[in-house]
Amino acid sequence: MNGPCTSPQPCGGAAAAGSRGGGRRAGPGPRACAGRGGGMAAEAAEACGAHGLRWALPLRPPLCLACAMETLGDGSLVRKKHVLSRLHDALVWQALPVVQLLAPDERVCMHLIGTLLGKSSAVLKSEQYLLCILDESQKELCKATTMRSSLPTFTLLGKLADAIPGFADILVVEHSNLVDHLLMGLTYPNEAIKAAVCYLYGKLYSSPVGTEWLSAHFEERLCGLFLNTLGRAQTKELQINCLGLLKELLKSDHFVSILMNISKPEEESENADFLEGENPLPLVLKKLLLTRDEMLQAASSHCLAATLVHSPSRYAPAFIHADVPEFLFECLSCNSEILIWSVYCCLLLLTEERLFFSKCHTVYGIESLVRSLHDVLPLNNVELHKQGLLLFTEILKRQPVEIKLFTNRGVCIEAIDLLMETVNCPVLEVVVEAVRAVSAFLRKDHLSSPPIPYEELQKLLEAVLKRCADLSPPQSSKRHAVSQKLLLLDSSFLWYLLCVCRLAVEFQSDPMAQENAFTAPNSESKDTLNNFSKFLLRICDTLCIPMVMNYLERAVSPSVMEVFISTLNTLFTVVPNMRNKFSKKLGMGPSSLYLSALLHSNPALNQACSSFLCSLCLSLYSATEKERTSSQEEQEMSELLQKGLPQLNYTIAESLLLLAETPEPFSLDQSLCSHQHCFILLLYFACTHGDRFVPEAELFLAVRNFLLSAQDHGDCPPAYVLRAALYLLAVCQDKGKTLDLRSLCTIRRILDGFPDLSLVYVHCPLLLKFFLHYPEFMGRFGHQVLQLWFSWGDCKQTEIEEAGFGVSDQPNSANPLLLILKSNSSILLILLDLVCSSSVEVAWKVLMTLRTFLETNEDVLVCDLLRSRFLQILQQLLVESTNRNLPVLLSLLFLVQLRSKGVRELDSTDFKLLHQVSNLCGKCRPMDTDLLQPSLNFLYWSLHQTTPCSQQRAVAVLLSNVSLLQILQKVLEHTWCRSPHSEPVYLSSEDALLCSGWLLVASLLLYQHRYNTEVRTTQVFRSREWLNLKKPLHYIMQFLRAVLQQNFSSSLLVIVGENTAEGATRPQLPSLQDAALHPLAVQQVFSLVVSLQNLLVHKDFVLSQAVVACLETLVEYLYVKNQDVALHVASQPWHRFLLFTLLNWAQKSFLQPEVLRLMTLFLRYQSSNIISQKEISQILQEAAEANLAELESLGVCFSL
Length: 1200
Hints:
The chain is mainly α. Helix content is 68%, strand content 1%.
């Protein structure tokens, strides 16, 4: 403490001696002091040399005020007592000098007053002094002539009650008569007095003792007067003090009851100023809410909340009837966080009363609430955010369905924007409340005003999912690390998913919700229920379900799982036309849900799991059994699952043992069979989608025991149960032991009991392998199983392709059978029987399978086995009206020939096939490519893959068939009608037919000349067409070689030149060279040579070989006819350029067979101008340096 003196010391020896003696002398009288003031001051100055005359007080003995202040601050108790006594005397007898001394220095004055008050506060708290003060106050109030003079006393009592804790209790107990003066003060028309009285009342009722002692006083005398005072208050001081008293009163349920149930007093009935109504408190608070003062509004809302908190259902109607909620919503436009918080609390309490909604207060105030939440979000007040969102959530949840909350679409959009903003809040607690608000918002009656904002809802869903994904713990988090807040978030998130799914389902029954009513004509809107539902299903599949499953792997919560499974169950009906796809996706993991239900043994979770698994199994059944779906079977399965799944409270090991149990003889209890059948179906649907939660070896044994037990008991399982059991056996066959004879016989007897094997058939490669693996099954059921396999192949493959939901790729319908055929070729006989006995569609599939098998299998024994049956099948197909399967059969026939290695003698079957095929060709039209192409290939290969003896007979058969030769000529005439391809591509079907035709004619021409076979018809060809080789068709050059080798003389064909062609006006005399080359002309020869040269530069290996061979044959023909022309053709300079073009194709291209043959041709006919001796030596040297492997890789023909 900073005093005016730096070194406190005692003032004079007399004062010290008096202090030590402990005596107290009476102060001098006023006259003495006045007469000796100057002398005493001088004495005081002399006694205290440190402070001087300025601080000396005219007392006897002298007193220095500065020393007295220092003593009060640091002196001992005895000295403090002495100094206080001297100061008391000074203030009593010499007050004016003390005031004059302190007035110039305000700091010193305040220091002295503070020191004295501080020293006296402890003394004033004693009961003796408090009673003394109350006595004096009582006297002052009694002798006061006017109530205005009592104001200081009321103020003093209020301050004392505020400063001293026990003062209010002493006042109430010891001086209760003072309360009567307080009542008089409330009736006096002075608001300052009323304010002081209300302040004191507030302190009295803040004490539990005062509340108890003054309870009757309030009920009988104060209540009405207080409300009247509060209602009429004009000054802010009185309003605040009244509200302070009201706040203390509202802490007691008794006082609240009195305040809310007070009736208008009789003495006030004539007073028009008294507030109207039976419950004036709501009207008073509403009046305060109408003020522009945010402090009064906040205090009023505090009192309102303090009233409602006692019993909202009891007191809320009075405030609602007084339209207080309307004014509370108006207050939300303020900037005071305290006021907004208070209003949120009041409205939240009012939401517990249905009248709050039926009076449409929420409809009126929802816009104000949304905007208020928008305004407070930027504030750094998490509790305010949470309270506002909680209020918004309660309004959304409790709003009656019949009263539409969002009558304006704009407000609805603003609410969605608000929810998106709150979801992105960085505070987790706010995000949890926001997700809850979103869940409550997703109600049909909230969003039923067209047009429904599907795009905004989609954005909201994306925001929620993104936020939840960001807040989800990483995969590496430990199980114990998942906080309670994240658990709360996931629970709220799942409720949100459930609500949005239910919303989409509810909208399906509303025609107005299907499409956007405001879409322009002839335009398609993306803002539709169908698009929203598909988005919902897709986002749940890709994000929601994996995220929740990831969470459940770390912290399994039965409540969270229950909501999650309920959501999955609802997703089945979100998009009805995608139910099957979603079911197949969910079918990949039903066992985890089943095991979780067993783990917790939670009744609610068990029921949710059972309901979900039942829906899932039925959906999977209808999705995978389209060809066999029976309403009766589906109904039976539904009843079985609904009844049995909730009772499957077994572990996996117990369930496997359950399958082997046999019911008691003559027992009427079917629960065991029901449980067995349910578990079999559950295993079946899980295994079909890759969820094998039971070891396959154990499952195989359990299912086998189940079938044995059923047979021993004389029980035949339903078709759908047996179907599931057979599938499980087939799936586990490779991991289990081979079925013994007893098991095979048992299964066979059970299957014999069904009239149609299709009732228990499952289109699965493993089941096909299962039936064909055991001879006991293949001999009895092989034909039916293969029939079903090919009958169901296309539809099942289509279903798999349509699934598109991540289901594991199924093998192609033919591939599994091909693997089985390779290991068991005897199945081929069954397939050939199917070709004869099945429908056209099934026969076509069988033939396609056989063709694929033959293309990949070169087993000669298999081909011999098939050839013996082809004649019978071909004769049967020719008898039938349709020939759809004929092309496939003919392709197979050709493949069988192609797989036969070496040369063999044709037998009777081969000649019959040759006769049938040639006749079939004669009946075809030129455009029947699918029939002619494989037939001509078969005929061509029959000529080349046999002995000369059989070859001669085959040529005779073919040349005797006039219709065959005629169709060949018609087919080959189409050669000049087709335009060449600009780029090398695979041969089209038409080109392939032409290739086969030209090759067959060339072979017939060659072999007819060799065997001098009789010909019944002659083919006519114009030399102008096939000699001008404008197209790179190497098969025509095969025909040209054959013609040149026979010197154009054959009984099979006639070459018509230009001079002998039809339409020639007059014959022209040929030159000597033309006559020597007849039927060719020199010009035709040169044209042919140019065409061959052009074809050589096409860089086609097959074409180059054919061109070189044709050029060799042509030069040989010319050399025989006219050597000059032949040498001229062989030595043309253009050949050298052509040779170098071929040599530049690649490295060491001179070693290519066609290049070597071409150089050999030039050397044979002494064309030194084309290739010199030096160049030949260089080529030979490079060839000698090349190794043997390199030469073989280049395909060098050493025979040249």
